[in-house]
Design the sequence.
């Protein structure tokens, strides 16, 4: 299966989401790989630092390009034996290629108005291309006006979204350069919800 973390906006939690979901999948015994498509190489640096900290990640992070992403799509799309999480940059042709290759796209977004505007644009682009996606609100502080506003804008725009959100957690920032501990900061629920979405989708035929 191929899951991309994608948003035309930077700094919304794409890399964190790809790494946390990859960890959740690996802990369940799946064969997992992260593809780093971002020239900033955040996911690759995360893995490199973890090696240097003697805390190596439990999956490999591979630098990927247009051709490797297309190849992965041919090999692993709709294939439940291998889970590839693609960490996308917020722009460029590679986003289109990743969208095309993916079974599902997670669109992480912060609750800020600038994030939501770009999230709606990203979702509309994916809808046009008939790619399944779900918007995932992250860095959320419960009971705040920005959260309530973001949620209603996402609903009003008729976007697909995850029922669960990821809270803003200072501890999550410290995992850059380390593997996750027992606590996946709410990404456990997101992983469960993602599998449920894939199971309920008749076109995807995920039976795991
Ligand atoms: N739920 C959260 N709570 C607190 N901090 C978070 C949370 N999610 C992500 N962050 C932090 O926010 C910053 C941006 O996250 P991340 O790098 O995952 O975003 P990105 O969309 O991949 O950014 P870029 O567009 O630069 O690739 C990082 O410092 C990360 O540690
Ligand atoms: Mg990133």
Sequence:
């Amino acid at each position: 299966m191929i899951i991309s973390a994608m948003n035309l906006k930077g700094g919304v939690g794409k890399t964190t989401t790809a790494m946390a979901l990859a960890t959740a999948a690996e802990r369940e015994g799946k064969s997992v790989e992260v593809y780093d498509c971002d020239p900033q190489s955040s996911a690759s640096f995360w893995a490199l630092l973890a090696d240097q900290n003697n805390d190596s990640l439990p999956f490999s992070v591979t630098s990927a390009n247009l051709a490797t992403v297309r190849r992965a799509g041919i090999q692993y799309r709709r294939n439940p034996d291998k889970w590839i999480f693609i960490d996308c940059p917020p722009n460029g042709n590679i986003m289109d290629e990743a969208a095309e290759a993916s079974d599902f796209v997670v669109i992480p977004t912060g609750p800020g108005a600038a994030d939501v505007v770009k999230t709606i644009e990203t979702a509309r682009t994916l809808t046009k291309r008939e790619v399944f996606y779900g918007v995932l609100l992250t860095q959320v502080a419960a009971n705040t006006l920005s959260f309530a506003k973001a949620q209603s804008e996402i609903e009003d725009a008729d976007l697909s979204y995850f029922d669960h959100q990821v809270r803003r957690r200072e501890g999550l920032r410290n995992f850059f350069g380390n593997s996750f501990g027992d606590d996946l900061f709410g990404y456990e629920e997101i992983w469960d919800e993602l599998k449920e979405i894939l199971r309920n989708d008749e076109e995807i035929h995920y039976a795991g």
